[in-house]
Amino acid sequence: MPEMPEVETVRRTLLPLVKGKTIQAVTVWYPKIIASDSEQFIQQLVGKKIETIDRYAKYLLIRLSDQLTIVSHLRMEGKYRLVEVNTPKDKHDHVQIAFTDKTALRYNDVRKFGRMQLVKTGTEKEVTGISKLGCEPNSSEFTTQYLINTLSRKKKNIKNALLDQTIVAGLGNIYVDEVLWQTKIHPLSLANQIPQFQGHQLHDNINELIDLAIKKHGTTIHTYLDANGDTGDFQKLLKVYGHKGEPCSRCGVLLEKIKVSGRGTTFCPNCQVIYK
DNA sequence: AGCCTGCCCTGGCGGC
DNA sequence: TGCCGCCAGGGCAGGC
């Protein structure tokens, strides 16, 4: 499931594959993937050139000539790969962007949760979802004081607070479980009851974890692959996610898994402190 | 306004 | 072996 480190890895691997290419034709096999009007999406892309790819939180921003941007969210299982244009369509290929050099960018998504849409460059922050995003880990806005102040105003539990993209943009289920373990905070702790010293620690750990995960090319749990079809490496470093029933690497007590608002949540019942 | 629930989707797996 | 139901979960609509 791509979170910010995975999306950043996709951005880095995808860019050299498509940069400078000119779009010749677009095929949409499953129109619901296109959040904007899919006929317009197809027509407006033809003839445009891919200039660069940016990322904002978990969103890819594919920059095109003529001030156009494809806003793309991979959600759970979206993947991009570059193919020869006549490569047979995979069952889960939903969009093809064919270039003038006979290659094509394929968007593949088993669950069909991912979305893309075309906007005028510069207006992407008005897109539903992006408009409400909070600041990103390792950004200048994401200060210790920002995190502490924001959490102190939230009555929900810390697990939900960190998954809330309007508070911190880019974390998902895996990295939230990891960072809470790292900081020794129980996932059901109330956000506004986290003591200051833990708020500090949480801030630093979020930055370090995201930074390290990007260096390791993300985490491959289920099917995540980058644009070259390679897996990430961070899964080897996971301390709690996917380790239910195994001894905590810090204290040896068996890790437990619970549901928090429908999200699977793994934690150490011994060394993660609950603040209520 | 803030918070929570259900829904979108499909494949994989456990249980019988 | 086959079928059924459940689980995975990011983000959004809708409800309270």
Q: Tell me the CATH topology of the largest domain.
A: N-terminal domain of MutM-like DNA repair proteins
Write out the strand line-up for the largest beta sheet, numbering strands in chain order. 1-6-7-5
Name of the CATH superfamily of the largest domain: MutM-like, N-terminal
Number of individual domains: 2
User: Main beta sheet: strand number and arrangement?
Assistant: 4 strands, antiparallel
| Percent in strands | 15-25%
Query: Average pLDDT across residues?
Result: 93
What is the top-level CATH class of the largest domain?
A: Alpha Beta
From the spread of the alpha carbons, the general shape counts as elongated
Structural class: alpha+beta
Roughly how many Å apart are the termini?
A: 30 Å
Number of helices: 6
- Helical content band: 25-40%
Q: Number of DSSP strands?
A: 10
Give a quick precis of the structure.
This is Formamidopyrimidine-DNA glycosylase. This protein is an alpha+beta fold. It contains six helices and ten strands, in the order αβαβββββββααααββ.
Structure description:
With 276 residues, the chain is an alpha+beta fold. It folds into two domains: 127 residues, N-terminal domain of MutM-like DNA repair proteins; 124 residues, Helicase, Ruva Protein, domain 3. Helices cover 25% and strands 22% of the residues. It is built from six helices and ten strands. A four-stranded antiparallel sheet has the order 1-6-7-5, covered by helices on one side. It has a four-stranded antiparallel sheet with strand order 2-3-4-8, covered by helices on one side. A two-stranded antiparallel ribbon has the order 9-10. β3 and β4 form a beta hairpin. The longest helix has 20 residues. The two termini are 30 Å apart. The model has no long low-confidence stretch (mean pLDDT 93). It binds a DNA duplex (16 and 16 nucleotides) through loops. Its EC number is 3.2.2.23, 4.2.99.18.
